Amino acid sequence: MKIVVLGGGISTERHVALVTGTSVCRALRSLGHKAIFVDMFLGLEDYDGPLADAFDAPDGFCGQVAIEKTAPDLEAVKASRRDQSPSRLGKNVLEICRLADCVFLGLHGADGEDGKIQAALDLLGVPYTGSDYLGSGMAMDKAVAKRIMDANGIRTPKWRELRYCEEDIPRLTQELPVPCAVKVVNGGSSIGVQLPDTREELESALHDILRYGDRVVVEEKITGRELTVPVLGDRALPAIEIVPPEGSSFDYVAKYQSGSEGAREICPAPITEAEQRMLGEAALKFHRALGLSVYSRTDFLLDAEGRAWCLEVNTLPGMTPNSLIPKAAAVVGMSYPELCETIVELSLRARRGEPV
After folding, report:
1. Cα angle for residues 245, 299, 286 (degrees, 5° grid)
2. What H or E segment, with its residue span, contains residue 98?
């Protein structure tokens, strides 16, 4: 198949989306597909040949990329593009997608995981991987996702949504409960997330999060083991336990760096069969309640009393070879290239309206 793998983009998760995209592209090429990597924001600005010939590029446009310790400098990325228009789509992005049999969405965060690119591809009649625009948009908005959890009896920490500005911070510092979790509603990769334990930390957190947005979810801080459950097709894969470095949380560095700075990811998680079943059923219930399809990954906290607290769902979770879903797929005997191809096949069925 001719497959465009869209990655990069201009969200705070750009680095992760570059590594996901190039990794998926190489995996699909290893199975014989004519896959090419396209940065959604930069597009094909370095390619001058006929678009139809782009699929014959010997390297699939896969460069060397890595996830840095800090979030990307988006202003520098914007300045580097030759097209200085306000468009979030780079040169010939939609045109090359129209020539593909399928677009693999290797994007994360804004513009990729929030339903916008899915809606654009729907209008063009181009098949793409993962969930549709509506499910993606609802899942990306943490406040909307919380309402879906509440409506479907999925246990989640007590929460409230609020919009604020700098002038509100002194009042909120005294009004909000601590300890708590403060999360910008459309963030990802733990960017725009703070876990203050004191009022001083809360004040600092509220100031910091305004860099990412003025609409947040504030939720009760639950203590427990961090677990995540992938869904593929119509089944839940084995749960994975995430153990952050001692004395820290599962933040941006812990998620994507190896060694002492990175988190340990234990797959399958050392939990009982009953706990695996409980988590798997909750992940599937949330996946279906949002109308998601093909694949997703839902994050939980498992407290000391054995209760699972649902935090959020990721509709385009990381898909590097070392990411969580590939690790869970490996436990059930599926290689990384096979997983990538399975996502494409299931997605084509979903776009045709067939069950997956």
Report:
1. 180
2. helix 93-98
Identify which of 165, 300, 160 has the alpha carbon closest to the alpha carbon of residue 230: 300
Is residue 340 within 8 A of residue 294, CB to CB? The reply is: no
On whether both 196 and 258 belong to a single domain, the answer is: no
* CB-neighbour burial class of residue 4 (10 A; exposed 0-12, middle 13-18, buried 19+): buried
Write the pLDDT tens digit of every residue in 17-76: 999 999 999 999 999 999 999 999 999 999 999 999 999 999 999 988 877 777 789 999
* Residue at 63 is within a domain: yes
- C-beta separation of 179 from 195 below 8 A: yes
Q: How many domains does the chain have?
A: 3
Residue 102 lies in a domain: yes
Distance (Å, whole) CA 146 – CA 163: 16
Instruction: Write out the residue range of the structural domain in which residue 45 sits.
Output: 2-128
The answer to the question of residue 351 being in a domain is no
pTM comes to: 0.92
Q: Are residues 180 and 107 in the same domain?
A: no
Q: What are phi and psi of 194, to 5 degrees?
A: -135, 150
Residue 210 and residue 82 in one domain: no
What are the CA-CA distances from residue 218 to residues 110, 185, 190, 195, 241 (Å)? 20, 10, 14, 10, 24
